[in-house]
Amino acid sequence: MSNWKALDQMGSGAATGAAIKADGYGLGAADIVRILYDAGCRDFYVAHWQEAEPLLPLLQDASLSVLNGVMPQDMTNPDLRHPAVKPVLNSMTQVERWIGAGGGRCDLMVDTGMNRLGLSMDESADPLLQELDIDVCMSHLASADEDVPQNGLQLGNFQKVRGTITARRYSLANSAGIALGHDYHFDLIRPGLALYGGIARTELETVIKPVASLETVVLQVRDLKTGDQVGYNAKFTADRAMRIATCALGYADGYLRAFAGNGEMSHAGETLPVLGRISMDLIAIDISNAEPLHEGDMVKCSYNLQKCAAATGLSQYELLTNLGGRFDRVWV
Ligand SMILES: *Cc1c(COP(=O)(O)O)cnc(C)c1O
Fold it and tell me: For the whole model, what pTM was predicted?
């Protein structure tokens, strides 16, 4: 909620939406809709139709856009005609399909240089678009987390699109794009990552607060002698007597094997390094220096997204969206 408000402040008067695809970047889309609706958010974004259905009862007067657009099989989905829902049309085929089915309020994606989804710049002049009832005409920035000429080129293209396509509102910026300044904000900004504590540009370091941290339980405590080995393929060998704990966290929870050799838990201010390979459901941690830990005690992981990304080579997006279904998600 505080991240949404901080981004809203940066948005130079533009409305602030929220990308909540992939179950709210792994944190729980339904909870996020409730929290951000209360903060004032009225524009939500998912990728798939299947993600929309459980959120519909929560939307009240907010809208939910489905970014992947309308395939032939989506046309019979009853959620398509829910008053809060808008398809994001991504191609002329989808535009024709939508008009052919009677049209109605929609969003439109134009590709200004990412070559991912959206009408091409040429197609954006097609007269058929005048038959659409477009709420938000949007485009997506490919490299807003970097200072590269592509940002300015995409901005220039989007300004042209704004001159050709009639829509109620125009929207370009994702989280990183918000930090590129006023020119990029238009009528609506669409943060995702930054809402969940991700920092895509240094300008956001002082603005965005961490959201996700992990906690897991100690299942067993063991004492090792010098030379004892730990975990699959014996990748860790004790060079001294030490005490370790086996905890209920593994790659099936999204704590991927990329954390081997660099992962850290903590307890009462002590850092507890992860030892050896990550198992599917388990990790081993060094608790030699911790105050005594017992079966059933909880240990924490601050899950600092910038640091974890640097240590593992995973993106901040992957670190969030991989978080598995076995965590209880607790909002504090
Ligand atoms: C995912 C997504 C966003 C949010 O992007 P972040 O980089 O997470 O802020 C915005 N717009 C579109 C079209 C997206 O697909």
Answer: 0.96
